[in-house]
Amino acid sequence: MKLLHTADWHIGRRLHGFDLTAEQQNAYAQIEQIAQEEQVDGMIIAGDLYDRRLPAETSVAMVDSMLQQLNLTDQIPIYAISGNHDSATRLATGTPWFKATHLYLHTDLSQAFQPVELSDTQLFLCPYFEPFDAQQYFSDDSLQHLDQAFERVVVEMKQHFDPTKKHVLVAHFFAAGSSTTDSETNLTVGGLAAVPTDLLTDFDYVALGHLHGKEALQSPTIRYSGSPVKFSLSEANQEKGVWIVDTAYDPVRLTFKPITPIHDVQQVTSSFAELMNPDDNDTVDHEDYVGITLTDKQPIPNVMARLRDVFPRIVTLGRTDGFETQVRYHGESSKQIRQKSPMDLLDDFYEKVAKESLSPQQEKWAKAALKVAREEGNQA
Amino acid sequence: MKLLHTADWHIGRRLHGFDLTAEQQNAYAQIEQIAQEEQVDGMIIAGDLYDRRLPAETSVAMVDSMLQQLNLTDQIPIYAISGNHDSATRLATGTPWFKATHLYLHTDLSQAFQPVELSDTQLFLCPYFEPFDAQQYFSDDSLQHLDQAFERVVVEMKQHFDPTKKHVLVAHFFAAGSSTTDSETNLTVGGLAAVPTDLLTDFDYVALGHLHGKEALQSPTIRYSGSPVKFSLSEANQEKGVWIVDTAYDPVRLTFKPITPIHDVQQVTSSFAELMNPDDNDTVDHEDYVGITLTDKQPIPNVMARLRDVFPRIVTLGRTDGFETQVRYHGESSKQIRQKSPMDLLDDFYEKVAKESLSPQQEKWAKAALKVAREEGNQA
Fold this sequence. Notes:
The structure is a homodimer.
Chain A: E1 2-6, E2 14-15, E3 18-19, H1 21-37, E4 42-46, H2 57-73, E5 78-81, H3 88-91, H4 95-98, E6 103-106, E7 116-117, E8 121-125, H5 131-138, H6 146-158, E9 166-172, E10 205-209, E11 222-224, E12 241-246, E13 253-258, E14 265-270, H7 272-276, E15 289-294, H8 303-310, E16 314-319, H9 334-339, H10 342-354, H11 360-379
Parallel strand pairs in A: 1-4, 4-5, 5-6, 8-9, 9-10, 10-11, 14-15, 15-16
Antiparallel strand pairs in A: 1-12, 2-3, 7-8, 12-13
Pfam families (chains A, B): Metallophos, SbcD_C
Family (chains A, B): Belongs to the SbcD family.
InterPro entries (chains A, B): Calcineurin-like_PHP, DNA_Repair-Maintenance_Comp, Metallo-depent_PP-like, Mre11_N, SbcD, SbcD_C
């Protein structure tokens, strides 16, 4: 069987306030196209279809339309699970009907053990669960940690193994040895929630969701697909895409199919002057979502607005070295400062910050403002 | 065809803070039983499955489970629409798959015109819509009011009429001539949203949702089923249940099948003494949800807590005549009052309100409290 492995669509997610709907639609369209070009026998979606347990109506309409297009129009079988960002209860709506067209969407641990039987492969769809769910399912309070619970889950799955077939597990968790990025929610701490990868060696392939970079695990048989869209600056250098998994080979054959964003996410470190006056060698796409780190050491007036004229999608703005010039009044005593007029103080301050004097127009505005302030002060 | 007509389930609704889950499950179980005993060919649910556009997970799980039971387990065809309390978008999830098992759930005006074809009947499922939706669908800005829009909708439906069949309309709105109760949200004002019943005469039966009492319309062919549960005190005297509609007869034959609540809702008008000391002729079920109107004229200390000992489900408490004794100090000048000690003032007040003196224990508590207050006053 040839399966497409994707995960972590996070429909409804924003990037530092920017709407990612167009990016997510674009990535989805490429996933659909890859599935058709590769003539896959099915698509695995390893959890986190939604970004929130309580998605907005627009997100609901988007996921509904994507699943309908893939499954009903394109007639691609879907093998999906709920992730930690999804509401298992909300995602479960309609699922008993979906099986008729080979859309499997498992949202409850109890559904993990009966595999979906394909011609040469058994697919175990294990939704995101917490130790408490395993305690309930197995009636065993000793399953306090996820690794214990998952070990028990695998034992139970293996009782359903057909030795003549390949065994594929679809799951959503943090596998030990994975490297994390900062756009996954830290729902669990330290080693507590990690599942050791050696628990997963009985499967011919483990299609994981949760971490957003495909490099998080390098095992030939255990893989994160990563998210199809970059959801944070820490994902700037990740290559996004999907895995094509061919279970006819032993070990399974993996091919990565990249997805091209409309606007990429990148980290830029440069001086303000270079950013504002790009030369011919400029490699930065100004339409990208950029995290800018300035190498300048002095304060720059109105820096964000001026940069936004050139880079409309700034997601963060920082400095490599902080400021060289701290804004202090060296050499003057507090008594001397108190004797200065408000206008002189403003003049001094502006020159320290902006490295230039107030223009005649600015001075006029400042005087008018100070006059109003003085009058209101007298009234009070 | 024999159809069961219900509406306005409002799953998730509360009655003055009381959870109605058990009542709603109980009513649902009776609806299921009636459908089975009557061997109906299908069930009409005329909108407002949910009480809110954004239902809680528990409500989602409840509606999911009810529809699965009726349609997948009992194999009863379902003909449903969204109402003004539902989110059409959220309710639409999964609907393209549902048709395979004859669960029709229309949530968009565009779905209203293609009837569901039964052997002897055409079913037009028209979800709740607003004039704006009709303007969009017909590309006609002149459809400013619901009556105009609905007239146009009916014209369009009639183009799909098969003259050899009966024609049943399922809709959710306020039909002119209906009497309202106070538990429907007043989304629309006055005549604006009312649809004249003469627009509905081309149908052999119109199964309406929105108003919660089956008596709201008395037409032999246009009916509200009412809600299966009493959702407000104004519904206390309504008989709840469902209609069985047999389209084999001309005019259609209607039979009302009542639903029995676990605890009824009723309005009780009585004196405090009679309520607290029921005699053998007492007809009030103390377990009911009761709106109590007291005939007493004097203040009654701690009245709600004392009544709740006898009636655990009080939803409102009022008075027929208000209070006879206004709490005022007649005959004393404000100077005289100011000369009284706090303890004397409290004594006077309590006697006015409670028609009895403070008990020795109450006096002790009051003195202790006044001492603390005095000490804190001295410190301040």
